[in-house]
Amino acid sequence: MWFLVMLWASCLLMGTHAQSSASFRRANAGSGRCQYTFTVDSPTEASCPSAVSSPEIEALKSRLGLLEALVARLIGGEAMSKSTQGSGSQSGLQDSYKQVMGENAQLQREKQRLDRQVQNLQQRMEELRQEAESLRSRPCMQQPPPRVPQTDNSFRPESGPALSHLVSRPGNTQGDKSSLRDPAWHYENPGYQELTAVVTEVSAPNLEGPADISGCGDLVWVQEPEVHRKADGIAGKYGVWMQDPEAKEPYAPEMVWRIDAVGSEVRQLFGYENMDQLSQGFPTKVLLLPESMESTGATMYRGSLYYQRRLSRTLLRYDLLSESIAARRDLPHAGFHGQFPYSWGGYTDIDLTIDENGLWAIYSTNKAKGAIMISQLDPDNLEVKGTWETKIRKSSVANAFMICGKMYTVASYTSPNTTINYMYDTATSQGKTISVPFKNRYRYNSMVDYNPAQRKLYAWDNFYMVSYNVRLGKQE
């Protein structure tokens, strides 16, 4: 740039003297000013004239003025260029800042939208959970309950439209049987079928007095629960209580046994002389089990406590007389510690129960894909004597128990008015849906077991130990 200025200035000063040379020098003159010096060689002359004619001086001044104007213009343009560059940089930063802020605002809006979606999904999950709980207690079929056969002269239901569908009619036996078959259930299809059930109001006969203890037919009626005791502390939220139907010395059949099942080390077995002592809460015997118990699947039979060892599929027989483990055996392939529990949870993978035919285990395996398995066990050495696979998923029911070689399942553990919704007969290897009303008075039933000597169901319902009288129909 400065080279062009000097060249142009030289041309101005030299005019047509192409061979003349010129120089330009800039120096600081002080007081904030810059001094410019131009040196121009004249044409070759003998000597430098002492005086310059006035026209030449005027021409030189004119040319110097033009040069100063050009320099000022150039300097001003450079400063303006720098200012423009600075202004452009600042403008670029502002544009970048605005872009970043815009992207941040967009991200905030996207985050708020995702938060709303998560909240909606959580709300939908809660609705689906409640709907699933409701479906578990909905009946699979809308049909009249099974007829209650007349078992003795003391029970004669009054005639009327409310009871007419419960009384069998002569000459209509085949029709009664077919009416108990759910048209939605494919009996000829051996494939896996899922059951759901919830409560419907079903008219039932007024069965007063003692339950029928003769015969071993199907379960047709369960009485209102009778409360015997409420557990004292939080450890009694759920548990198991029972009486031995075939008790041995030194304990009588009236002896009541109880285990609070809340906690990681469940080992205390409390004994009460009878129901009155249980109600009063004064145990006469406290035993400490040598190995910790899992969940509420224990049962009492022939002087021994049968239970599942914690964190394993090992079954133990604890002899009450010697107060020691008398037998142990793994239940083949059985799930444990939350693999295949009942719908209420509680690590109820293996449920030991008894009936008129002996000792049973209700459980599931990976091979069965969660369907309920039933195994009959030798009460002495816990060896499996026989196994049956049902077509109802274990996690879809709240509890199960055995009566006369038949397994029954309870639809819901929280609904106050639910049903016993499924029965599987090990004698025929056939299952079917049923609808026998059952009440969870305290809405958290964690254990249901059968006592064949008393013909009662024992249950643990949200701190309360209750029992139910039952009635069985005559075998056909």
Account of the 3D structure:
This protein is α+β, with helices and mostly antiparallel strands. The chain has helices at 2-14, 54-136, 173-179, 275-280, and strands at residues 22-30, 33-40, 219-222, 226-230, 239-243, 256-260, 266-272, 285-293, 299-301, 304-308, 314-319, 324-330, 351-355, 358-363, 371-377, 384-393, 399-403, 406-410, 417-425, 430-439, 445-451, 456-461, 464-472. The strands form six sheets. Strands 3, 4, 21, 22 and 23 form a five-stranded antiparallel β-sheet that branches. It has a four-stranded antiparallel β-sheet with strand order 5-6-7-8. A four-stranded antiparallel β-sheet has the order 9-10-11-12, with no helix packed on it. A hairpin with a 6-residue loop joins strand 15 (371-377) and strand 16. Helix 1 runs antiparallel to helix 2 (54-136). It is rod-shaped, with a radius of gyration of 49 Å. It holds the Pfam family OLF.
